[in-house]
Write a structure and sequence with these properties.
By secondary structure, this protein is α+β, with helices and mostly antiparallel strands.
Length: 726
């Protein structure tokens, strides 16, 4: 270990520095939330905008001011930031609504000004606005101050400067109205802007709540994966068998895996046998037989039988841990979530601040008396009209309405990023089992010496006691044919071979056959029905292509989108289905890491890739793709790893999602245009550009009105998405 590595894995206690072999040990020493060796190197919170910003606890990014995002490595999902912003938003509404009525009521109902004098009304506005601006808006002022001291100007810089200046100027208008020139008085009073400052704070809080609510689920995919891993294992030693925590397992340990148990680490079977559910690795529904010398991987489920295995890879070296890391790394490597406004702020914020300061300096040097008042009013007007209320609403409003439109069509978007990227997709990668196909076997042929009805009755009578997908398919098909299974006794299940039992006094076996070449090419599984030692016939089973898949593939081709299929299944079966559907490219026998590598290869070619899948084995690829799309009929891990969920499990939803993405992206650009248009058009007026020639100076009142009108325009435009054609 190098000196730098030691320093990174150190901690100080009572003035002494301690060094550790790994992050797991360091966190345990500090009493922090425990982590497993599988994810010891990944801190639980990071900034999706700023590379390299990580933290052990939630908070805000020191560079851009955004709330840090969860990677899922913490034990429980932390919603403290969301809860805090939600609470502030609700409190803001409690004070903001009556403030709006006090400030705007006389404009709607002129008679109200006789009930409350302007002086009393102004003090009421101050009382109601103070909890909103200084209380609910405190985090924004803290971020604004930090952005100024760290010279990382962002949207919070303008929010703090604009609302703070409007609030301070309004207090000055109440306490020292004499410093303002008569030209800025209305009905003998200097206008106040408490309502404008409070409204901005409340709207920004709404945007924060929407964003945080979307991002609190980011780490759920990894938490779902962690649930799949066993926490203990039965280690065999000279004194017997002991259940130990997962992190205590060492390479070479002998471990017993019981029926229904999960394989704790990677290794090889030494004794016994089992029926292994390898869907974590291959995505295929059919279990495989585990016998001595068969390699097994962590997370694999032993459906039946019992065996002893030797641990060969533990902790972060297991395949399960590598899948975990792949998902986490892919999530962190994503482009920033739809923050066009934040990127524009890098230029916009400094320009606004410089303009406000320049305006104040010019008025102080060359303006009419009282110079201080004109300088202050000009600077306040610039900051108010530039305050990013509409700019902050431009993206969240379009995203919110677009997500609602998608939900009505059975398309669920998890975050705003996908709405920017999905419209650019030119390559769609699909998993086979459970995505292109239904993901379960169906009886496709029954043939032999006995009649079909007789064969199905024999087979279903013993298979009704089986939990194997093939057994369930045979029983389901028999019942669809109106065949009632007969009682069976002495039921036996031989892992990887078949089942047997006594039916009507005869020994019946349903046995898996070695796959003939023609069966493999047709993607079929064959089982024989043997009664008292005589083979009466065979039953062929196969996964079925979803009814909607051909139309979905054709729709993508019609839009010039390339379709690639990835599967862990046999190449012959994969190519058979690909030919039937006209799929452009096929990769078969692919592992989870292999799927991810293929996605990386496609992206390296400059392609914009969407991945559609349904299984645990698809999770790394779903996270790696520009846009991950999970079938609503699939596993929780797949759905949590994806940015889009097709609730109906229908690939036709891909085309609809792409069309909606393009509509939302257009709407966001339109919103940003109007937001910037009002601000950029008003800033020169607020600074006094027309005053020398025409004697016209935009007052803060008109600046606040222009700012409000830009927000109305943005909201109205976003609402059009409710009727978007997808």
């Amino acid at each position: 270990m190098t000196v730098d590595e030691k320093t990174a894995l150190s901690a100080v206690r009572n003035g002494k520095t301690f060094f550790f072999c790994c992050e797991f040990c360091r966190r345990k020493f500090l009493g922090l939330a425990p982590v497993t060796a599988a994810h010891a190197s990944i801190l639980p919170y990071f900034c999706p905008m700023c590379e390299g910003v990580e933290s052990e606890k939630p908070g805000t990014c020191p560079k851009c001011g955004m709330a840090l995002e969860s990677s899922g490595m913490e034990n429980e999902e932390d919603t403290s930031e969301l809860d805090d912003m939600t609470r502030r938003f609700k409190i803001g509404l409690v004070f903001g609504i009556p403030l709006f009525l006090v400030a705007m009521g006389p404009m709607v109902f002129p008679g109200l000004h006789h009930l409350v004098s302007p002086r009393v009304s102004r003090w009421l506005e101050l009382i109601l606005a103070t909890p909103v601006v200084l209380g609910c808006g405190l985090p924004f002022f803290q971020r604004s101050w930090h952005s100024l001291t760290s010279r990382n100007l962002n949207m919070f810089t303008l929010i703090g400067l604009g609302t703070g200046t409007a609030y301070a100027a309004s207090i000055l208008a109440i306490l020292a109205p004499g410093i303002f020139p008569d030209s800025f008085r209305h009905m003998g009073e200097v206008p106040v802007y408490f309502e404008a400052a409070s409204t901005i704070i409340i709207l920004v809080l709404l945007g924060q709540v929407m964003e945080l609510r979307a991002r609190t689920k980011t780490g759920t995919a990894i938490r779902e994966l962690l649930k799949l891993a066993p926490t203990t294992a039965f280690v065999i030693h000279e004194g017997g068998e002991t259940e130990v925590p997962l992190h205590e397992i060492r390479v070479g340990d002998r471990i017993r895996v019981k029926p229904g148990g999960k394989v704790p680490v990677d290794g090889v079977i030494l004794e016994g046998r089992g029926s292994l559910d390898n869907s974590l690795l291959t995505g295929e529904f059919l279990p495989v037989e585990g016998v001595p010398t068969t390699p097994v991987a962590a997370g694999t489920i032993n459906l039946s039988g019992s065996f002893i295995m030797k641990a060969e890879k533990v902790g972060a070296d297991t395949l399960f841990a590598r899948i975990l890391h792949m998902v986490a790394d892919a999530q962190r490597s994503r482009a920033p979530i739809q923050h066009v406004a934040d990127r524009a702020a890098a230029v916009f914020v400094p320009v606004v601040v410089i303009t406000a300061l320049t305006s104040a300096i010019v008025w102080m040097g060359f303006g009419p008396e009282p110079k201080l008042a004109h300088a202050l009013v000009s600077a306040v007007s610039v900051l108010i009209i530039a305050c990013p209320c509409a700019l902050g609403l431009a993206t969240p409003m379009a995203v919110m309405v677009g997500m609602g439109r998608g939900a009505r069509a059975g398309i669920l978007f998890r975050n705003a990023e996908v709405l920017e990227q999905l419209g650019n997709v030119d390559t769609v990668v699909v998993d086979k089992t459970g995505t292109v196909t239904e993901g379960r076997p169906w009886v496709v042929a029954v043939q032999g010496l006995a009649k079909e009805e007789e064969l199905l009755r024999w087979a279903a009578s013993v298979e009704i006691h089986s939990e194997h997908p093939i057994g369930k398919a045979i029983v389901r098909h028999a019942r669809e044919q109106g065949i009632t299974p007969e009682p069976a006794s002495d039921f036996e299940s031989m892992a990887g071979e078949g089942v047997a039992g006594i039916v009507a006094g005869q020994k019946v076996r349903v046995w898996k056959l070695s796959q003939a070449e023609h069966a493999q090419q047709k993607a079929e599984t064959l089982v024989s029905v043997i009664v008292d030692g005589t083979i009466l016939g065979t039953i062929a089973l196969a996964d079925r292509i979803r009814d909607t898949t051909p139309a979905a593939i054709q729709a993508l081709h019609d839009r010039g989108i390339k379709v690639v299929m990835l599967t862990g299944d046999h190449p012959a079966a994969a190519h058979t289905i690909a030919r039937q559907l006209g799929i452009d490219e096929v990769h078969a026998g692919v592992t989870p890491s292999g799927k991810r590598e293929i996605i990386q290869s496609l992206k390296a070619q400059g392609l914009h890739v969407a991945m559609a899948g349904d299984g645990i084995n698809d999770a790394p690829a779903l996270s790696e793709a520009d846009v991950g799309m999970a079938m609503g009929t699939g596993t929780d891990v797949a759905m949590e790893s994806a940015s889009v969920v097709l609730v109906k499990g229908d690939l036709r939803g891909i085309e609809g999602a792409i069309l909606l993405s393009r509509a939302v992206t257009r709407n966001i650009r339109q919103n940003l245009f109007w937001a910037f248009f009002y601000n950029l058009a008003g800033i020169p007026l607020a600074a006094g550009a027309l005053y020398p020639a025409f004697g016209v100076l935009l007052s803060p009142t008109l600046a606040a009105a222009a700012m409000s009108f830009s927000s109305v325009s943005v909201i109205a435009n976003a609402l059009r998405l409710r009727h978007a054609e997808i």
